[in-house]
Each structure stands twice: as C-alpha cells, then as structure tokens.
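Sample intake sheet
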Amino acid sequence: HLYREYLSARTRKVLTQFLRIHEYDMENFLGYLASVDDIGKIEYHFQCKDSQMKVTLQELGIDKNYVGSPNIRHEKTGATAIRRIWRTQGQSVGSSNLFSDLLGAHHQKNYGMGSDSKDPFFREYQEELETTMRQLFLNGKCLKLPKKPGSNRGVAESILLGLIILADWISSGAMFADAEKWIGNADREDQI
C-alpha cells in the first residue's frame, strides 16, 4: 500500500530500475521484504526477555543458561538468519548481503550484535516464517533476489530502507496491538 499510494511515479521507477522488478511485482516483493524484517525475534535471547517465555523454553528443554545482554539486537540477528536462509535457497552472496544488511539496519542502531542461533528449534521457526511470508506475498513462487542491482543504488537503498522502517513502525503501532480482536470483524474495522 505504501508503495502504490504514497510513492511518486518517479520514485517507483527508481526502485523498479534498481531492483529490475516489474512494477506489478514490486508491491509484493516489498511486502515480503518488510514481513521478514523481525525474523531475528525468533531467537533464544530475544524470547527470554519475557520471563514466562523463558520458563516455557526451559520446560521444553531449551535452556541456554540465558544471561541477558543488551548487546544482542534482533535486527542484526534477523539479518544473519535471513542471509543464511537465502543462501540456502541459492541466492547470490551479493544480493543476500545487500538485502539482509538493509533489514539489519531497520532500527538504525550502529551498536550491538546479532546471534546466529545454531539451535534447530529456532532455525526451523525462522525458516517457517520466511516460507509463509514467501507464500503469502509471492504466491509460493521461488524467491529471486535481484542478482545485479541496476542504477541509482544509493538512492534506491535509502528508499527501500525508509519503506522497511515505516512498515515496521506501522506494524508496531497500537492499532495492531490487538489486531486479533478486530480482523474479520466488520464493525471494528470501520472504527480504525
């Protein structure tokens, strides 16, 4: 929606030329990209920020003797996870790095580090999220990251990062906090 309704035709052209994606595929690609921006939250350190989740993970036998660290950043963990997933799918190193780096910058923090969970429990759920988002946004098609970005690289990367950040802010807003209560309820959807 942001792409179609709020970007000028010139800005959309910059993105389509840079990504070498047809205009009619761009919105779905951007939706997919924005939908995997928080994949790094599917990770032990992030989940243990919630004390009840830590207990649940321990009950499941997933206890890493967690010690909280303010240096673990979910966006950096997510960049590592999505890069690994894309590389496993056969995406090019350059494209995997470019797009995972953009996702890893969506909170604009230049400190902290990611956690590359080797635990199959979390990797399985990360891969499941990516597969689900690919099915929803790309109709189950194989993901094809642009292999060689076109012109206007710096401008296009800034636009992409801006869209990812804005989508993250919107989806983190109060409107979506209780989405389960109003999705599918026509009376409530009109009030939003």
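Comment: The longest helix spans residues 120-138. The two ends are 16 Å apart (CA to CA).
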